[in-house]
Amino acid sequence: MKTFTQSQLQAIADALGEAADGLTGLEIGHLLATVKIADTVSPMTKRHRSYNAFANDQNKRGARTHIIAFIRKAMKPERFAREAERIEPMRLNLNRALAFAGLAVAASGKLGSVEATQTLSEATRRARAEGRVDYPRCILMC
Predict the structure, then answer these.
(1) How far apart are CA 113 and CA 105, in angstroms?
(2) Are 23 and 95 in contact (CB under 8 A)?
(3) What is the per-residue pLDDT for 137?
(4) What percent of the chain has pLDDT over 90?
(5) For residues 133 and 136, what is the distance between their CA atoms, to the nearest angstrom?
(6) Which of 40, 84, 98, 107 has minimal CB crowding within 10 Å?
(7) What sign results for the dihedral spanned by CA atoms 124, 130, 134, 137?
(8) Which residues have C-beta within 8 Å of that of residue 5, sequence separation ≥ 6?
(9) According to the model, what pLDDT value does residue 125 have?
(10) pTM (2 decimals)?
């Protein structure tokens, strides 16, 4: 089964827990519970909390499936209906992180496969390419 590398997990957690543009602590707790990832609730930052929960879950299960489920649920556009300005900065940051794992979130919220990138400049360019990213297949199980 596929897994994320430690650095990929860190980048994903950083993007989702970004202070200004990321998820709130309450949202993180709710989403972790929804996808059945054990929360490591303690007095730590949102980014560290997410990373620890993701790493512990992936190490325990040997797969990234539940982390993928978290991302899918977190990036559903309807979640942002009242705060539409939040989704695009978070999606940009998340896509920059996901590019190294060969994944991207479309504006529709769908997670798809893309060619993995090797450089930060390529990941940034691709993340900013609004509407031009081709998603050859939707990911059902990763």
Answers:
(1) 9
(2) no
(3) 45
(4) 69
(5) 10
(6) 84
(7) positive
(8) 101
(9) 84
(10) 0.86
The pLDDT score that the predictor gives to residue 49 is: 94
Q: What angle do CA 69, 105, 71 make, to 5 degrees?
A: 25
Q: Which tens digit of pLDDT belongs to each residue from 64-74? A: 999 999 999 99
What pLDDT score was predicted for residue 33?
Answer: 96
Quick one: which of 103, 110, 135, 141 has its CA closest to 1? 141
Its sign, for the CA torsion 29, 42, 22, 94, is negative
Long-range contacts of 65-68 (CB under 8 A, 24+ apart): 65/1, 65/141, 65/142, 66/35, 66/36, 66/37, 67/4, 67/9, 67/12, 67/37, 68/111, 68/139, 68/142
Q: Which two tokens stand for residue 35?
A: 């996808």
Q: Which residues of the chain have pLDDT under 50?
A: 131-142
Give the Cα separation of 52 and 83 in Å (integer).
27
**Which pLDDT value is given to residue 131?**
43
